[in-house]
Amino acid sequence: MIAVVPHEIHIEPGVHPERDWFGMTVNIDTVVSTLVAGVIVILLGFLVRRSLTRRTDDHVPTKLQMIWEGVVGEVNKQVEDNLGRVHPYVAPLAISLFFFILIANWLEMIPSEFGPGRLHALAAPTADTNLTYAMAIFAVVSCWIYGIRVRGFKGYFSHFLRPFPVLLPLNILEELVKPVTLALRLFGNIFAGGIMLALIAAIPWYFGMPVANILWKMFDLFIGGLQAFIFALLTVLYFAMAGAGHDEEHGHDDDRASGHDNEKTPELAA
Fold it and tell me: How far is residue 247's CA from residue 147's CA, in Å, rounded to a whole number?
């Protein structure tokens, strides 16, 4: 009689190789993966710029250029639909966030385990709340600054009293919760993907581990791209909400101006 003994699985959520620098505890794997993802995004930007400026005889864009133009076109469309125009700050921010988060999510697919403890040198940095909270806070604070610049200090903070002043505490709480939900949504999905990879790796090969591993990695690639798109899209929507009312106020001013001109027209005709 042959007994099937499952492999021993060690999953320790939130445990990272750490170093103490200047009185602060730093997660080494998160820092390394973040730097790698940032360098890859910068290199991709230079490659796309080179392909755009390079002259070819057939004038056919490269595959990298087509992918870049597709993503940029879709993000610009979302920004224009929500803000009324392609904003020179919001669109590049959303594009940069999308590509950075996409690369950061996909780093988990690269085999980079080493050492007796099987440390993952390129663990997905988005599976660490330190990075997701930092990106979410940066995005939401940028939205607040954008709203104040567009609508003015009084105009922006007056929306906390709408539709009724009694809802002021709830409106403030909703605004403060935005970075929390934005960060935890990304963290939860990517962290769950890492746990699934660890569980599948513990399945014996004769039970179909290689097939399950390939299928899950393909699905994880899709989830990584989807979460990058959702984070960038929600950032654009938050910018649109921060500047809401600005276009309406300008529209009312234009209506009043056009009505005033119409009143003057009969006098001029007379």
Answer: 12
